[in-house]
Design brief:
disordered N terminus, 71 residues, single chain, mainly alpha, 4 helices
Length: 71
């Protein structure tokens, strides 16, 4: 059961992340950072859409980081 819980995969659409509907669990911080890095390198994501998506991810990462640092 522990192996399952630690390897559980969460699926959230970019829209859910953008709207702040994805959970803000500290366990998601590395994955959010990984997604942000991959999207920042995606040549198909351009212009205002790129700015909005990356900003939304940055905001979500900041929220999770604050929760992770809280006692």
């Amino acid at each position: 059961l522990n192996a399952f819980q630690s390897n559980l995969v969460f699926f959230f659409s970019p829209t859910q992340v953008f709207n702040g509907e994805a959970p803000t669990s500290a366990a998601l911080l590395p994955k959010l950072a990984e997604v942000r890095l991959l999207l920042s390198k995606d040549p198909t994501l351009q212009g205002e859409a790129r700015t909005r998506v990356l900003t939304a991810l940055d905001e979500q990462i900041a929220r999770v980081a604050v929760l992770k640092s809280s006692p």
